[in-house]
Each structure stands twice: as C-alpha cells, then as structure tokens.
Automatic annotation (TrEMBL):
Record keywords, A-Z: Glycosyltransferase, Membrane, Transferase, Transmembrane, Transmembrane helix
GO molecular function per UniProt: glycosyltransferase activity
Chain ranges passing through the membrane: 12-33, 45-67, 74-93, 154-175, 182-200, 236-253, 259-277, 289-309, 428-452, 464-483, 489-506
Name of protein: ArnT family glycosyltransferase
Enzyme's top EC category: transferase
Source organism per UniProt: Lentilactobacillus raoultii
Entry EC no(s): 2.4.-.-
Length: 528
C-alpha cells in the first residue's frame, strides 16, 4: 500500500507538471497568434509586462511577509484598502450589460419586479435559457438580492465587490489549512490582485458567487478531512453536510463542479493509509473514503434530479440535456470551440417557430446531430490536436477582464466606451496580464517540483496533492467543452494555492505556529 501511495502521488505530480507546462506554452504561443495582433504583438511589450508582473509578485511577497507577522485583522484591513479603487471604476464607468450579463440583469430585474417565471417563459422573456438552467439560477439569485435592496444593476456590482473581498479572506484560511499562515496571506493577496479578476469583479458576472461557494466547500471539506473525530461526532457530519451543500450551490451557478467530488474520491483513495497520527488512524482511514463516496453519490443524485426540481420550482420545461450544448460547441472546429452564431440561430429558429411541446425534443435532436457531425469531422480530417491547441490558447489568454469591462460599460456622459482593445493602455495592460499569468503558472510548477510530496509537513503534502488533482480535472475539462477566456477562473483556486505554496516555502517566523502545535497536542491528549 505504501508503494501504491507513493507511486500514485508521483503519477499525479508528473501529470500535473505536464499539463501545467503545456498550458504555460499555450499561454505564450497564444500571445503571438494572428488574432492577437491587434492587442499585443510586440515581444518587447511581453518582456516588459513580465518584468513588471515579476516586480508585482515581489511586492506581494514583501507585503505578505510583513502581514504574516501581524494579527489577521491587518490582512483584512489591507484587502479593504485595496478595494477602494474599485469604487471609481463603478462610478465613472456606468454599467451597460451585454451578453450573459445582460440576461442576468434583465431576467433578474424582471423577477424582482414581480414577474413570474412562467409568465416570462410564455412571453419569450427567457429566450433560449431553458437550455441553460444555470442562467435562471443566477438571475433568480440576483433577483432576490435586488428585492432586498434596490432593483438596479449597481446592487449586483456592489454585491460582487463585497463577496470578492470575502472570498479573498477565505483564500487566506484555505491556504492556512493546507499550509501555514504565510501561505494563507500570500494566497489572499495573489487572488485579490489578479489584474483580470480585479476588474471583472466590479461587473455583473456570476463567477464571484460561484467562486465563493466553491471556496467555502473546500474549507468545509478540509476541515472535515483534517479533523480527528469519529462518525458519532456531530462535527463529522456537519462539515460533511456543508461540503455537499456548497458544492451543490456552486453547481447551480456553473455546472462543472462534478470535478471536485470526483477529485475528493481520487484523493481519498491515494491517502487511505495516510496515518500522520497513529492515535487517530482509525478515525482517519476507516471512514474518509466512504465519506468522499457519499459526497459524490449525493452530488450525482442531485444532478440527476435537478431538472425535475427546477421544473417544480420555476414551472419552466427545462431540458434534461444541458451538457449537450457545451459539448456541441466545444467540439466545433469551425467555431474554434467558442460561441457558434450559426448554431444559435438554428436554436432560435426552433424556439420561435416550433410549438412549445416540441421545442425541447427538436433542440436536443439538433445538438446531438451537431455533436455527431463535429466528431466525425474531427476524426476524418485528423483535427483533434489542432482543435485542442486552439482551445487551449483561447482559454489561456488573460484578456477577459479588460475585454468584458469595455463591453459592459459606458462613460458617464453616455457616450459608448470604445469596444475595441486597440489602445496603448490596453496593449500594456494585457501584456502585464500575460506576464502575471505566466509567473503564476510557473510558480505552480515550482511548487510541484520542490514542495511535494512533503513528508515533514503532512498537511502541505496532502493539500498540494488535492490541489493538483483538482487542477488536472479543470484543465482537462477545459479541452472538452466550450471555451472562453473567462472560464480560466475555474483554475484560480487550485493554481493560486499551489503558487502561494511555492512563494511561502521560506516562511517567516509565525506567531501562531507554536499555538497550533500546542492545540494539536491538546487534541491528541483528549482523544487518548
């Protein structure tokens, strides 16, 4: 079993290094593809951007070193101060929702005004969103927030701003759970100062809420797996239940969360005999795999029942084949695995001209036909690797923040803000973003090379293994479904923790280190 554990750890390690190395190359090559020539074609700009980004990471490390020797309230205060520049972004650039954000704003605002979901469906107010239940979930959530406060897009902007701040604090606690205090501070600062996400978080995106739910789920899971309690202890079931609840909430917002419970099961199999404390070996090895299987089972049952539950709640005939669209688009070589206007027009035609009783079946038939055609075409013309390369470059491009900010805002005087990125500021900002992401990716690789497996600090070693498995899952999934640059947000949680671990390898003296050791010793004595 020991050989199995070591072999599996090293297998995951090399797999993650290979995948991360591939995406590092795709990020660099994606910078110079033809489609990017209007954005940042200069090698000089990329080099300068990377140097500035490297300086930013040095400042983050220095700030984290200073904060790590102080009470955690100093970190929270720092994050609040870093939030202040977001208010001018909201005030001077008024929101003008487009694309998905338009749907969230209009549908959610209509719901907050008292329009029923059935009425919206019957009057074509939901358009194609019966194919995308997560859009209705997001709009419904935003609608309830508008009801409690003010029915304006500004409410959701401020909501996203607040929960992004909260998520940064939770990143601290997650980093501290897996590693130590310094790693937690680094994780919080790196996450909060991600240039693209910093700008994106002032818009109407659903990712801030999704990332909040996912981070809470990870905290609960780690609290459960690191606890030294038996199945008769209430905390055992409380943390396990909370993990399932927040994974489910995250799935309702963005339906790719199956990766996490699958990663938990794989992790539990690899760590089934990880007896870091002999006195607690029974409580750690006998039930953790079963608990992870329970999380996966309940999650799968929910996914199966979700369309029926949605129909009962919203009184809308949601389709039971929501993943078909993403697979059909993601396998389309002509559309580069991105939004396909031709397919959308065909779906719109069905939606507007077919009887309601036939819409779902006709849409599903069209999507199946498109997916089958795409797969035959990829096989016939040997385009599998070419499509994978194209999609990897697209999702690796860290341009979504500025791009979506310009698409969804206009100036105070009402004049439309330029919806192109052909400005000197945009070029330099995007070059800096590329540099920031390259360094983040490189740090994650460094963590895998030098920090793990770590037999001396069992939490760090195990935590990095868990992050690596999750990162493998989200990176591989990115090659299968529809891609957009903003979908890289799903990488942030595992990648930032890995990067923070590399940056925090040489940790400062921690005032809480001895207290944590004393607390662990006290738990051991009580259990004995």
């Amino acid at each position: 079993m020991r050989l199995f554990k070591l072999g599996s750890q090293w297998t995951i390690r090399f797999l993650t290094i290979g995948i991360l190395g591939y995406y590092l190359i795709m990020t660099i090559s994606g910078y110079f593809i033809d489609e990017q020539h209007v954005l940042a074609p200069s090698k000089t700009q990329l080099i300068i951007g990377a140097i500035v980004a490297l300086g930013s990471f040095a400042l983050i490390w220095g700030g984290a070193y200073w904060l790590a020797n102080r009470y955690v309230g100093w970190l929270v205060t720092t994050l609040i101060v870093l939030t202040i520049p977001k208010f001018p972004l909201i005030y001077f650039f008024k929101i003008k929702p487009a694309s998905d954000m338009y749907s969230y704003s209009v549908i959610g605002g209509s719901s907050a005004s008292g329009d029923s979901w059935k009425w919206l469906y019957l009057h074509n107010g939901l358009d194609l969103n019966t194919l995308f239940p997560h859009v209705i979930h997001i709009s419904s959530t935003f609608g309830w927030i508008d009801r409690f406060f003010i029915n304006r897009p500004l409410t959701i902007q401020l909501f996203n701003l607040v929960i992004t701040l909260i998520t940064a604090v939770l990143f601290y606690y997650l980093g501290r759970q897996i590693g130590h205090h310094f790693i937690g501070v680094l994780a919080a600062l790196v996450f909060y100062l991600m240039p693209n996400y910093y700008i994106y978080s002032v818009l109407l995106g659903a990712e801030p809420l999704w990332l909040l739910c996912l981070t809470i789920a990870m905290l609960c899971f780690n609290r459960w797996r690191l606890g030294h309690w038996s199945m008769t202890n209430g905390y055992y079931w409380s943390w396990l239940t909370l993990t399932i609840v927040f994974l489910t909430l995250a799935q309702l917002i963005r339906p790719i969360v199956l990766i996490w419970p699958l990663a938990f099961v794989i992790f539990a199999i690899f760590m089934i005999h990880d007896n870091h404390l002999v006195t607690h070996s029974k409580t750690r090895t006998a039930h953790q795999l079963g608990g992870c299987l329970l999380i996966l089972t309940v999650f799968l049952v929910f996914m199966t029942a979700s369309p029926k539950i949605d129909r009962q709640i919203y009184h809308i005939p949601f389709t039971t084949h929501t993943s078909l669209y993403s697979l059909a688009v993601g396998s389309n070589y002509r559309a580069k695995g991105m939004y396909d206007p031709i397919l959308i027009n065909q779906l719109e035609k069905i939606n507007h001209h077919c009887p309601r009783s036939q819409r779902d079946s006709k849409m599903v038939a069209l999507l199946r036909k498109q997916l089958s055609h795409n797969l035959r075409s990829l096989q016939q013309y040997h385009q599998w690797f070419s499509l994978l390369t194209i999609k990897s470059r697209i999702i690796s491009q860290p341009i979504y923040g500025l791009q979506l900010f310009k698409q969804n805002t206009h100036q105070v005087n009402g004049r439309p803000f330029a919806n192109n990125l052909r400005t000197p500021f945009s070029r330099w900002f995007i070059s800096f973003n590329f540099g920031f992401q390259l360094i983040l990716n490189a740090l994650a690789l460094l963590s895998l090379l030098v920090d793990w497996p770590n037999s001396k600090h069992w939490r760090i070693g195990n935590g990095l293994l868990l992050m690596a498995i999750i990162l493998d899952g989200v990176l591989i999934a990115s090659s299968l479904v529809e891609v957009q640059s903003r979908y890289q947000i799903s990488w942030y949680l595992p990648m930032i923790i890995l990067a923070a671990s590399a940056m925090g390898r040489y940790e400062p003296d921690r005032p809480d280190f001895k207290a944590k050791e004393e607390q662990l010793a006290a738990h051991s004595k009580i259990s004995q």
